Amino acid sequence: MPIRLTERRPEVSPDRLLSECVPPPRFAGVRFETYRPDPAESSQSEALAVLRERGALLSQPRRERSLWARLRGAGTAEPEKPGIYLDGGFGVGKTHLLASLWHVSTGPKMYCTFVELTNLVGALGMRSAVEALSAYRLICIDEFELDDPGDTVLISRLLGQLVAAGVQLACTSNTLPDRLGEGRFQAIDFLREIQGLAAHFDVRRIDGPDYRHRGLPVAPTPWSDEQVSQAAATRSDASCDHFVDLYHHLAELHPSKYGALLDGVQTVGILDLRELTDENVALRVVVLADRLYDRNLPLLTSGVPLDHLFPADMLKGGYRKKYLRALSRLISLANAGMAG
Q: What is the average per-residue pLDDT within 320-331?
């Protein structure tokens, strides 16, 4: 019998939430040595050099400064500015460089996406989050989002307290393949939104090939309910749930538990996929899509094609970047799961 995600109610401890803040499996093996800058784009080589230099400092054990050194502003092995922000288009290697910095740095260290960090703060509460994260030497935040003012203010407040505690920060922008070139570089927005923190960040723009015409991958033709059910029944550790039941279940779980919901699952089957009309449901599906993608789980679907999951008005609204990212990831997983 297939696994029913809707029958699972995982409990996730704060220790597990923090322990899972590492680069996703697809970036587990990347290093500075495996990054290949485009010879035609000097900004890529420059960013690599800057990150290598920062990594060389962070690879050394952290030394406590004496009172005299603190008064003189000297005697640390830390970078001059506690934060670095990598801004650039899709596919120029920002996440590769960010994960490489994490890999080379000594701990304690943490790696997460902006969404995961907001979920973590929501699960722990601000005070507990500040207390726990202040112990880290380096926190890497992939895909820093600026489309939700509430979340941006929340995380800016958090980061301000972490910088004051001596934590090093590294962030990337969340440019998507289907941005069509509009406002492609976000450094000005980033610096404006984080306000008082701006002086603490070294901003590096990474240029690369123009991906304006790349668009989304082609969604596979949906299977029938019977095909999905049969495939889920024959594949090892596969789940199978009706789409409506699944998104109702997601509403009952904190998003920080969506990863644990997938523990032990090797393939995910979803029956009767439908176009979404509720933004709250859509945003929960986005988080689930990220957790599926992190785990590289093949996806099987029936119902509407995946590229019809989010209606046109959502794809033109304030969360369009989230939805386009989710579509790109879900379609990629479905192409892997439904090939042939």
A: 89
Most distant CA pair in the chain: distance in Å? 72
Per residue in 144-154, pLDDT (tens digit) is 876 677 787 88
The pairs formed by 276-283 with CB atoms below 8 angstroms and a separation of 24 or more are: 276/309, 276/310, 276/311, 276/314, 277/311, 279/314, 279/317, 279/319, 280/251, 281/247, 281/250, 281/251, 282/310, 282/314, 282/319, 282/323, 283/319, 283/322
Query: pLDDT by residue (tens digit) across 264-298?
Result: 999 999 999 999 999 999 999 999 999 999 899 99
pTM (2 decimals)? 0.80
User: What are the Cα distances from residue 188, in Å, to 81, 85, 184, 200, 205?
Assistant: 18, 11, 11, 14, 11
Exposed e or buried b per residue across 274-310, where buried means at least 16 C-beta atoms within 10 angstroms of its C-beta: eebeeeeebbbbbbbbbbbbbbebbbbbbbbbbbbbb
Distance of CA 110 to the CA centre of its chain: 13
303 touches 272 (CB < 8 A)? yes
Query: Which candidate, 189, 197, 121, places its Cα nearest to that of 159?
Result: 197
C-alpha pair distances (Å), 53 with each of 79, 84, 201: 9, 12, 15
Sheet holding 138-144, edge to edge: 109-113, 138-144, 168-173, 83-88, 201-206
Number of CB atoms found within 10 A of residue 142's CB: 25
Task: Judge contact between 36 and 125, C-beta under 8 A.
Answer: no
* 222-226 contacts at long range (C-beta below 8 A, 24 or more positions apart): 222/273, 222/301, 222/302, 222/303, 222/304, 222/305, 222/306, 223/300, 223/301, 223/302, 223/338, 224/302, 225/271, 225/272, 225/302
Please provide the DSSP assignment of 219-230 as one string: PPPPBPHHHHHH
Residue 17's nearest CA partner among 132, 95, 102 is 132
Q: Return the structure tokens found at 259.
A: 């990863």
